[in-house]
Protein backbone atom coordinates (compact mmCIF):
# COMPACT_ATOMS: atom_id res chain seq x y z
CA UNK A 1 0.00 0.00 0.00
CA UNK A 2 1.24 3.43 -0.92
CA UNK A 3 0.07 6.83 0.24
CA UNK A 4 -0.90 9.91 -1.74
CA UNK A 5 -1.99 13.42 -0.82
CA UNK A 6 -5.61 14.54 -1.07
CA UNK A 7 -4.28 17.43 -3.17
CA UNK A 8 -1.87 15.52 -5.41
CA UNK A 9 -2.28 11.88 -6.38
CA UNK A 10 0.92 11.69 -8.41
CA UNK A 11 3.50 11.56 -5.64
CA UNK A 12 3.68 8.31 -3.67
CA UNK A 13 4.91 7.85 -0.10
CA UNK A 14 5.46 4.87 2.18
CA UNK A 15 4.12 4.55 5.72
CA UNK A 16 7.30 5.70 7.43
CA UNK A 17 7.36 8.88 5.31
CA UNK A 18 3.82 9.86 6.12
CA UNK A 19 4.24 8.90 9.76
CA UNK A 20 7.06 11.39 10.23
CA UNK A 21 5.68 14.08 7.96
CA UNK A 22 2.09 14.18 9.24
CA UNK A 23 0.96 16.69 6.62
CA UNK A 24 1.66 16.43 2.87
CA UNK A 25 4.05 19.05 1.44
CA UNK A 26 1.21 20.55 -0.63
CA UNK A 27 -0.85 21.12 2.52
CA UNK A 28 -3.11 18.13 1.80
CA UNK A 29 -3.67 15.09 3.99
CA UNK A 30 -2.18 11.67 3.36
CA UNK A 31 -4.49 8.86 2.37
CA UNK A 32 -3.82 5.26 1.22
CA UNK A 33 -4.18 4.78 -2.53
CA UNK A 34 -6.28 1.71 -1.84
CA UNK A 35 -7.96 0.20 1.21
CA UNK A 36 -8.29 -3.51 1.82
CA UNK A 37 -11.87 -4.71 1.94
CA UNK A 38 -12.48 -7.78 4.11
CA UNK A 39 -14.94 -10.46 3.03
CA UNK A 40 -17.68 -11.54 5.44
CA UNK A 41 -15.73 -14.71 6.21
CA UNK A 42 -12.60 -12.72 6.99
CA UNK A 43 -14.54 -10.43 9.31
CA UNK A 44 -15.92 -13.48 11.13
CA UNK A 45 -12.36 -14.64 11.70
CA UNK A 46 -11.28 -11.26 13.05
CA UNK A 47 -14.12 -11.39 15.57
CA UNK A 48 -12.32 -14.19 17.42
CA UNK A 49 -9.23 -12.12 18.20
CA UNK A 50 -8.21 -10.32 21.37
CA UNK A 51 -8.07 -6.52 21.19
CA UNK A 52 -4.28 -6.51 20.76
CA UNK A 53 -4.31 -9.15 18.01
CA UNK A 54 -7.19 -7.48 16.22
CA UNK A 55 -5.31 -4.17 16.36
CA UNK A 56 -2.25 -5.87 14.88
CA UNK A 57 -4.24 -7.33 11.97
CA UNK A 58 -6.02 -4.11 11.13
CA UNK A 59 -3.13 -1.70 11.57
CA UNK A 60 -0.73 -3.97 9.69
CA UNK A 61 -2.76 -3.44 6.49
CA UNK A 62 -1.63 0.16 6.54
CA UNK A 63 2.02 -0.07 7.60
CA UNK A 64 3.34 -3.34 6.20
CA UNK A 65 5.70 -1.38 3.95
CA UNK A 66 7.64 -0.11 6.96
CA UNK A 67 7.07 -2.47 9.91
CA UNK A 68 7.20 -6.23 10.42
CA UNK A 69 4.08 -7.79 11.86
CA UNK A 70 5.68 -9.27 14.96
CA UNK A 71 7.28 -5.91 15.74
CA UNK A 72 3.94 -4.18 15.34
CA UNK A 73 2.37 -6.75 17.65
CA UNK A 74 4.99 -5.97 20.30
CA UNK A 75 4.41 -2.25 19.92
CA UNK A 76 0.69 -2.67 20.45
CA UNK A 77 1.13 -5.00 23.43
CA UNK A 78 3.44 -2.50 25.06
CA UNK A 79 1.10 0.38 24.29
CA UNK A 80 -1.90 -1.08 26.11
CA UNK A 81 -0.33 -2.92 29.00
CA UNK A 82 -0.92 -0.06 31.44
CA UNK A 83 -4.52 0.59 30.53
CA UNK A 84 -6.87 0.13 33.45
CA UNK A 85 -9.12 -2.09 31.32
CA UNK A 86 -7.62 -5.40 30.20
CA UNK A 87 -9.64 -5.29 26.99
CA UNK A 88 -8.42 -1.69 26.41
CA UNK A 89 -12.02 -0.49 26.07
CA UNK A 90 -15.17 -1.29 28.08
CA UNK A 91 -18.72 -1.70 26.90
CA UNK A 92 -21.65 -0.82 29.15
CA UNK A 93 -25.37 -0.95 28.54
CA UNK A 94 -27.79 1.77 29.67
CA UNK A 95 -31.35 1.21 28.46
CA UNK A 96 -31.21 1.09 24.68
CA UNK A 97 -27.79 2.79 24.60
CA UNK A 98 -24.43 1.04 24.56
CA UNK A 99 -21.54 3.09 25.82
CA UNK A 100 -18.05 2.29 24.58
CA UNK A 101 -15.70 3.64 27.24
CA UNK A 102 -12.55 4.59 25.40
CA UNK A 103 -10.97 6.42 28.31
CA UNK A 104 -9.02 3.85 30.32
CA UNK A 105 -5.57 5.01 29.24
CA UNK A 106 -3.10 7.19 31.17
CA UNK A 107 -4.78 10.55 30.40
CA UNK A 108 -8.39 9.41 30.54
CA UNK A 109 -9.39 10.22 26.96
CA UNK A 110 -9.76 8.12 23.84
CA UNK A 111 -6.73 9.80 22.33
CA UNK A 112 -4.45 7.58 24.44
CA UNK A 113 -5.49 4.58 22.37
CA UNK A 114 -3.75 5.92 19.26
CA UNK A 115 -1.11 8.08 20.88
CA UNK A 116 0.48 5.30 22.93
CA UNK A 117 1.02 3.32 19.73
CA UNK A 118 2.53 6.36 17.99
CA UNK A 119 4.95 6.86 20.87
CA UNK A 120 6.22 3.31 20.54
CA UNK A 121 6.40 3.59 16.75
CA UNK A 122 8.78 6.54 17.06
CA UNK A 123 11.05 4.35 19.18
CA UNK A 124 10.80 1.49 16.71
CA UNK A 125 11.85 3.77 13.85
CA UNK A 126 14.95 4.40 15.85
CA UNK A 127 15.69 8.08 15.69
CA UNK A 128 19.38 8.88 15.90
CA UNK A 129 20.83 11.47 18.27
CA UNK A 130 22.22 13.60 15.46
CA UNK A 131 18.80 13.84 13.87
CA UNK A 132 16.51 14.53 16.81
CA UNK A 133 12.81 14.78 16.06
CA UNK A 134 10.80 17.79 17.20
CA UNK A 135 7.12 17.08 17.50
CA UNK A 136 4.84 20.09 17.39
CA UNK A 137 1.26 19.53 18.40
CA UNK A 138 -1.81 21.72 18.76
CA UNK A 139 -4.33 20.69 21.37
CA UNK A 140 -7.80 21.60 22.52
CA UNK A 141 -6.91 19.77 25.73
CA UNK A 142 -6.78 16.03 25.23
CA UNK A 143 -4.36 15.51 22.34
CA UNK A 144 -1.61 17.33 24.19
CA UNK A 145 -1.95 15.30 27.36
CA UNK A 146 -2.09 12.05 25.42
CA UNK A 147 0.98 13.05 23.38
CA UNK A 148 2.91 14.01 26.50
CA UNK A 149 2.03 10.76 28.26
CA UNK A 150 3.14 8.81 25.19
CA UNK A 151 6.37 10.68 24.49
CA UNK A 152 7.77 11.98 27.75
CA UNK A 153 11.37 11.01 28.45
CA UNK A 154 11.78 9.29 25.08
CA UNK A 155 15.25 9.55 23.60
CA UNK A 156 15.95 12.03 20.80
CA UNK A 157 12.43 13.47 20.74
CA UNK A 158 11.26 16.89 21.91
CA UNK A 159 7.58 17.71 22.17
CA UNK A 160 6.12 21.22 21.88
CA UNK A 161 2.47 21.41 22.83
CA UNK A 162 0.41 24.47 21.92
CA UNK A 163 -2.86 24.88 23.84
CA UNK A 164 -5.26 27.86 23.80
CA UNK A 165 -4.56 29.91 26.92
CA UNK A 166 -7.36 29.64 29.52
CA UNK A 167 -9.58 27.68 27.14
CA UNK A 168 -9.04 24.14 28.42
CA UNK A 169 -10.17 22.58 31.70
CA UNK A 170 -7.99 22.77 34.84
CA UNK A 171 -7.44 19.03 34.91
CA UNK A 172 -6.57 18.94 31.21
CA UNK A 173 -3.97 21.65 31.80
CA UNK A 174 -2.56 20.03 34.92
CA UNK A 175 -2.09 16.66 33.23
CA UNK A 176 0.08 18.40 30.63
CA UNK A 177 1.97 20.93 32.71
CA UNK A 178 2.95 18.85 35.74
CA UNK A 179 4.88 16.23 33.81
CA UNK A 180 8.32 17.62 34.67
CA UNK A 181 10.12 15.94 31.76
CA UNK A 182 13.06 17.62 30.05
CA UNK A 183 11.82 16.91 26.54
CA UNK A 184 8.33 18.40 26.99
CA UNK A 185 7.49 22.10 26.38
CA UNK A 186 4.02 23.44 27.09
CA UNK A 187 3.02 26.66 25.36
CA UNK A 188 -0.22 28.52 26.10
CA UNK A 189 -1.15 30.54 23.00
CA UNK A 190 -3.26 33.67 23.47
CA UNK A 191 -5.91 32.49 21.02
CA UNK A 192 -8.23 29.59 20.21
CA UNK A 193 -7.56 25.98 19.29
CA UNK A 194 -7.99 26.87 15.61
CA UNK A 195 -5.23 29.46 16.04
CA UNK A 196 -2.97 26.79 17.54
CA UNK A 197 -3.76 24.38 14.72
CA UNK A 198 -3.11 27.09 12.14
CA UNK A 199 0.30 27.85 13.65
CA UNK A 200 1.25 24.18 13.49
CA UNK A 201 0.04 23.81 9.89
CA UNK A 202 1.98 26.92 8.89
CA UNK A 203 5.17 25.55 10.40
CA UNK A 204 4.60 22.26 8.57
CA UNK A 205 4.16 23.97 5.24
CA UNK A 206 7.32 26.08 5.65
CA UNK A 207 9.74 23.60 4.19
CA UNK A 208 12.92 25.26 5.45
CA UNK A 209 11.73 25.46 9.02
CA UNK A 210 10.28 21.96 8.94
CA UNK A 211 13.56 20.51 7.70
CA UNK A 212 15.71 22.60 9.98
CA UNK A 213 14.09 21.28 13.12
CA UNK A 214 13.23 17.81 11.71
CA UNK A 215 9.62 18.50 12.54
CA UNK A 216 7.02 15.81 13.04
CA UNK A 217 3.39 15.85 14.16
CA UNK A 218 0.94 13.72 16.08
CA UNK A 219 -2.29 15.63 15.52
CA UNK A 220 -5.24 13.70 14.14
CA UNK A 221 -4.14 14.74 10.66
CA UNK A 222 -1.45 12.08 11.18
CA UNK A 223 -2.82 9.00 9.45
CA UNK A 224 -1.25 6.72 12.06
CA UNK A 225 -3.76 8.06 14.60
CA UNK A 226 -6.70 7.18 12.39
CA UNK A 227 -5.63 3.57 11.80
CA UNK A 228 -5.37 2.90 15.54
CA UNK A 229 -8.92 4.19 15.99
CA UNK A 230 -10.42 1.90 13.35
CA UNK A 231 -9.82 -1.01 15.71
CA UNK A 232 -12.42 -0.21 18.34
CA UNK A 233 -15.18 0.10 15.74
CA UNK A 234 -14.48 -3.50 14.77
CA UNK A 235 -14.01 -4.70 18.33
CA UNK A 236 -17.26 -3.22 19.62
CA UNK A 237 -19.22 -4.23 16.52
CA UNK A 238 -18.26 -7.83 17.27
CA UNK A 239 -20.36 -7.74 20.44
CA UNK A 240 -23.45 -7.12 18.29
CA UNK A 241 -22.89 -9.34 15.28
CA UNK A 242 -25.81 -9.83 12.90
CA UNK A 243 -27.49 -6.71 14.21
CA UNK A 244 -27.80 -3.36 12.54
CA UNK A 245 -25.30 -1.10 14.28
CA UNK A 246 -24.90 2.70 14.26
CA UNK A 247 -22.17 4.66 16.01
CA UNK A 248 -22.60 8.11 17.52
CA UNK A 249 -19.35 10.05 17.75
CA UNK A 250 -18.53 13.28 19.64
CA UNK A 251 -16.70 15.12 16.89
CA UNK A 252 -14.27 18.00 16.49
CA UNK A 253 -11.50 17.47 13.98
CA UNK A 254 -13.39 14.60 12.26
CA UNK A 255 -10.58 12.09 12.99
CA UNK A 256 -12.42 9.64 15.21
CA UNK A 257 -15.57 9.45 13.11
CA UNK A 258 -13.46 9.21 9.94
CA UNK A 259 -11.88 6.08 11.43
CA UNK A 260 -15.40 4.65 11.60
CA UNK A 261 -15.89 5.51 7.94
CA UNK A 262 -12.67 3.68 7.06
CA UNK A 263 -13.92 0.67 9.07
CA UNK A 264 -17.03 0.71 6.91
CA UNK A 265 -14.93 0.88 3.76
CA UNK A 266 -13.01 -2.14 5.04
CA UNK A 267 -16.26 -4.08 5.05
CA UNK A 268 -17.63 -3.56 8.56
CA UNK A 269 -21.41 -3.38 8.11
CA UNK A 270 -22.06 -0.08 9.89
CA UNK A 271 -25.50 1.37 9.27
CA UNK A 272 -24.85 5.05 10.06
CA UNK A 273 -22.16 7.21 11.61
CA UNK A 274 -23.69 10.06 13.54
CA UNK A 275 -21.57 13.16 14.01
CA UNK A 276 -22.36 14.93 17.28
CA UNK A 277 -21.10 18.50 17.56
CA UNK A 278 -21.37 21.26 20.11
CA UNK A 279 -22.17 24.83 19.09
CA UNK A 280 -19.09 24.81 16.91
CA UNK A 281 -21.24 23.17 14.31
CA UNK A 282 -19.36 23.45 11.03
CA UNK A 283 -19.71 19.71 10.45
CA UNK A 284 -23.40 19.72 11.25
CA UNK A 285 -23.84 22.53 8.73
CA UNK A 286 -21.77 21.03 5.94
CA UNK A 287 -23.43 17.62 6.26
CA UNK A 288 -26.94 19.08 6.37
CA UNK A 289 -26.58 22.01 3.96
CA UNK A 290 -23.36 21.51 1.99
CA UNK A 291 -21.79 24.76 3.08
CA UNK A 292 -18.36 24.41 4.69
CA UNK A 293 -17.86 27.75 6.34
CA UNK A 294 -15.83 28.19 9.52
CA UNK A 295 -17.10 30.84 11.90
CA UNK A 296 -15.43 32.12 15.04
CA UNK A 297 -14.70 29.41 17.61
CA UNK A 298 -17.09 29.60 20.50
CA UNK A 299 -15.76 28.20 23.79
CA UNK A 300 -18.10 25.46 25.03
CA UNK A 301 -18.45 22.91 27.81
CA UNK A 302 -16.92 20.29 25.52
CA UNK A 303 -13.63 22.09 24.74
CA UNK A 304 -12.00 19.20 22.86
CA UNK A 305 -14.66 19.71 20.20
CA UNK A 306 -14.23 23.49 19.95
CA UNK A 307 -13.03 23.27 16.38
CA UNK A 308 -14.16 25.17 13.31
CA UNK A 309 -11.55 24.01 10.81
CA UNK A 310 -12.27 20.33 10.91
CA UNK A 311 -9.14 19.12 9.16
CA UNK A 312 -9.93 15.48 8.55
CA UNK A 313 -13.06 16.41 6.61
CA UNK A 314 -10.71 16.89 3.66
CA UNK A 315 -10.19 13.12 3.61
CA UNK A 316 -13.92 12.52 3.22
CA UNK A 317 -14.09 15.26 0.62
CA UNK A 318 -11.48 13.41 -1.45
CA UNK A 319 -13.78 10.36 -1.54
CA UNK A 320 -16.94 12.32 -2.14
CA UNK A 321 -15.28 14.07 -5.09
CA UNK A 322 -14.28 10.71 -6.56
CA UNK A 323 -10.62 11.18 -5.65
CA UNK A 324 -10.38 14.32 -7.75
CA UNK A 325 -7.29 15.92 -6.21
CA UNK A 326 -7.64 19.02 -8.40
CA UNK A 327 -11.16 19.69 -7.14
CA UNK A 328 -10.08 19.16 -3.52
CA UNK A 329 -7.35 21.76 -4.09
CA UNK A 330 -9.89 24.18 -5.58
CA UNK A 331 -12.20 23.81 -2.58
CA UNK A 332 -9.32 24.26 -0.17
CA UNK A 333 -8.16 27.37 -2.02
CA UNK A 334 -11.71 28.74 -1.90
CA UNK A 335 -11.72 28.11 1.81
CA UNK A 336 -8.53 30.09 2.16
CA UNK A 337 -9.40 32.97 -0.17
CA UNK A 338 -13.20 33.24 0.18
CA UNK A 339 -13.68 31.68 3.62
CA UNK A 340 -15.95 28.85 2.48
CA UNK A 341 -16.87 26.29 -0.17
CA UNK A 342 -20.16 24.76 -1.16
CA UNK A 343 -21.03 21.13 -1.95
CA UNK A 344 -23.82 20.39 -4.42
CA UNK A 345 -26.91 18.21 -3.82
CA UNK A 346 -25.35 15.03 -5.22
CA UNK A 347 -22.28 15.45 -3.03
CA UNK A 348 -24.42 16.00 0.07
CA UNK A 349 -26.41 12.89 -0.82
CA UNK A 350 -23.23 10.81 -0.99
CA UNK A 351 -22.23 12.00 2.49
CA UNK A 352 -25.73 11.38 3.84
CA UNK A 353 -25.56 7.72 2.85
CA UNK A 354 -23.02 7.16 5.61
CA UNK A 355 -23.40 10.13 7.95
CA UNK A 356 -25.95 12.11 9.92
CA UNK A 357 -25.10 15.09 12.07
CA UNK A 358 -26.63 16.85 15.03
CA UNK A 359 -25.67 19.84 17.14
CA UNK A 360 -26.09 19.83 20.92
CA UNK A 361 -25.67 23.14 22.73
CA UNK A 362 -24.28 23.69 26.23
CA UNK A 363 -27.67 23.94 27.88
CA UNK A 364 -28.73 20.63 26.36
CA UNK A 365 -25.38 19.10 27.34
CA UNK A 366 -25.99 19.91 31.01
CA UNK A 367 -29.54 18.52 30.80
CA UNK A 368 -28.26 15.30 29.21
CA UNK A 369 -25.60 14.76 31.91
CA UNK A 370 -28.20 15.45 34.58
CA UNK A 371 -30.83 13.10 33.15
CA UNK A 372 -28.32 10.34 32.48
CA UNK A 373 -27.12 10.51 36.06
CA UNK A 374 -30.70 10.45 37.37
CA UNK A 375 -31.79 7.60 35.18
CA UNK A 376 -28.73 5.35 35.33
CA UNK A 377 -26.77 6.61 38.34
CA UNK A 378 -23.79 7.06 36.03
CA UNK A 379 -21.87 10.20 35.11
CA UNK A 380 -20.89 10.91 31.51
CA UNK A 381 -18.53 13.67 30.43
CA UNK A 382 -19.76 16.66 28.36
CA UNK A 383 -18.30 15.34 25.07
CA UNK A 384 -19.92 11.96 25.47
CA UNK A 385 -23.12 13.80 26.43
CA UNK A 386 -23.35 15.41 22.98
CA UNK A 387 -23.34 11.93 21.46
CA UNK A 388 -26.03 10.72 23.85
CA UNK A 389 -28.09 13.75 22.78
CA UNK A 390 -27.51 13.13 19.08
CA UNK A 391 -28.48 9.47 19.43
CA UNK A 392 -32.12 10.44 20.04
CA UNK A 393 -32.54 10.89 16.28
CA UNK A 394 -31.78 7.27 15.45
CA UNK A 395 -35.06 5.64 14.67
CA UNK A 396 -34.07 2.95 12.20
CA UNK A 397 -33.91 0.15 14.75
CA UNK A 398 -30.12 0.14 14.89
CA UNK A 399 -28.28 -0.99 17.96
CA UNK A 400 -26.86 2.36 19.17
CA UNK A 401 -23.19 2.54 20.12
CA UNK A 402 -22.03 5.75 21.78
CA UNK A 403 -18.32 6.55 21.76
CA UNK A 404 -17.43 7.61 25.30
CA UNK A 405 -14.45 9.82 24.56
CA UNK A 406 -13.38 11.13 27.98
CA UNK A 407 -13.62 10.32 31.66
CA UNK A 408 -15.97 12.74 33.47
CA UNK A 409 -13.29 13.55 36.05
CA UNK A 410 -11.50 15.64 33.43
CA UNK A 411 -14.46 18.02 33.35
CA UNK A 412 -15.52 18.20 37.00
CA UNK A 413 -16.40 21.90 36.81
CA UNK A 414 -19.08 21.07 34.25
CA UNK A 415 -20.23 17.89 35.95
CA UNK A 416 -20.89 19.84 39.13
CA UNK A 417 -23.20 22.17 37.22
CA UNK A 418 -25.30 19.19 36.18
CA UNK A 419 -25.36 16.74 39.06
CA UNK A 420 -24.32 16.29 42.65
CA UNK A 421 -23.33 12.70 41.93
CA UNK A 422 -19.71 12.14 42.94
CA UNK A 423 -17.05 11.18 40.42
CA UNK A 424 -14.31 9.04 41.85
CA UNK A 425 -10.76 10.30 41.26
CA UNK A 426 -9.22 7.92 38.73
CA UNK A 427 -5.99 6.42 39.96
CA UNK A 428 -4.13 7.61 36.84
CA UNK A 429 -4.21 11.21 38.01
CA UNK A 430 -4.78 11.13 41.75
CA UNK A 431 -1.17 12.15 42.37
CA UNK A 432 -0.92 15.26 40.24
CA UNK A 433 -3.22 17.74 41.93
CA UNK A 434 -0.51 19.32 44.08
CA UNK A 435 2.35 19.13 41.60
CA UNK A 436 4.04 22.22 40.21
CA UNK A 437 2.87 23.39 36.79
CA UNK A 438 5.26 24.49 34.09
CA UNK A 439 4.28 26.36 30.91
CA UNK A 440 5.01 29.51 28.92
CA UNK A 441 2.47 31.96 27.53
CA UNK A 442 3.02 33.26 23.98
CA UNK A 443 1.20 35.64 21.64
CA UNK A 444 -0.66 34.12 18.68
CA UNK A 445 2.23 34.93 16.35
CA UNK A 446 4.11 32.48 14.18
CA UNK A 447 7.34 34.44 14.60
CA UNK A 448 7.19 34.20 18.39
CA UNK A 449 6.43 30.50 18.36
CA UNK A 450 9.21 29.70 15.92
CA UNK A 451 11.84 31.61 17.83
CA UNK A 452 10.68 30.01 21.09
CA UNK A 453 11.17 26.56 19.56
CA UNK A 454 14.51 27.40 18.02
CA UNK A 455 15.66 28.82 21.34
CA UNK A 456 14.79 25.63 23.21
CA UNK A 457 16.47 23.21 20.83
CA UNK A 458 19.66 25.11 20.11
C1 LIG B 1 -10.47 14.95 20.57
C2 LIG B 1 -11.74 14.69 21.24
C3 LIG B 1 -12.95 14.62 20.53
C4 LIG B 1 -13.02 14.87 19.04
O1 LIG B 1 -12.36 13.93 18.27
P1 LIG B 1 -11.98 14.25 16.75
O2 LIG B 1 -11.21 13.09 16.28
O3 LIG B 1 -11.17 15.51 16.80
O4 LIG B 1 -13.26 14.46 16.03
C5 LIG B 1 -14.11 14.30 21.22
N1 LIG B 1 -14.09 14.11 22.55
C6 LIG B 1 -12.95 14.18 23.27
C7 LIG B 1 -13.01 13.96 24.72
C8 LIG B 1 -11.74 14.47 22.65
O5 LIG B 1 -10.62 14.54 23.37
Describe this structure in words.
- The protein is an alpha/beta fold and 458 residues long.
- The chain has a domain of 216 residues: 3-Layer(aba) Sandwich (Rossmann fold).
- Strands 4-5-15-10-11-14 form a 6-stranded mixed beta sheet, with helices on both faces.
- A hairpin with a 2-residue loop joins strand 1 and strand 2.
- Helix 3 crosses helix 10 and helix 16 crosses helix 17.
- The protein is globular, with a radius of gyration of 20 Å.
- 50% of the residues are buried.
- The site of pyridoxal-5'-phosphate (PLP) has 16 residues, from helix 11.
Count of DSSP helices?
A: 19
CATH class membership of the domain at 90-108 and 223-419:
Alpha Beta
CATH architecture title of the domain at 90-108 and 223-419: 3-Layer(aba) Sandwich
* Biggest pleated-sheet summary: 6 strands, mixed
Question: What's the total number of strands?
Answer: 16
Rg:
20 Å
Distance between the termini: 38 Å
Given the C-alpha coordinates, what overall shape results? globular
Tags for this model:
five-stranded parallel beta sheet; alpha/beta; six-stranded mixed beta sheet; 17% strand; 16 strands; Rossmann fold; 458 residues; binds pyridoxal-5'-phosphate; 43% helix
Q: What is the compact description of this entry?
A:
With 458 residues, the chain is an alpha/beta fold. It contains 19 helices and 16 strands.
Amino acid sequence: MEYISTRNKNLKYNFKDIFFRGLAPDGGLFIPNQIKKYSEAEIKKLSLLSYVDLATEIIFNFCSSSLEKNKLNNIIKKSYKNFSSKEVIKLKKFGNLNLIELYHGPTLAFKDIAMQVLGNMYDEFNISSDNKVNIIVATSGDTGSAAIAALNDRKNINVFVLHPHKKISNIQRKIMTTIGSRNIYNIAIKGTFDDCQKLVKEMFSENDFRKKINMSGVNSINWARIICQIVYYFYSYFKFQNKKVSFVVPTGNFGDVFAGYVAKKMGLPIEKLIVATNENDILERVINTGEYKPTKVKPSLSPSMDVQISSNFERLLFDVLNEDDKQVSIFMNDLKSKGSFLLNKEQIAIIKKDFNAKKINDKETIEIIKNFSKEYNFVIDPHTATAVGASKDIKDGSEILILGTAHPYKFLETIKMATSQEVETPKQIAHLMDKKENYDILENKIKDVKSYILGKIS
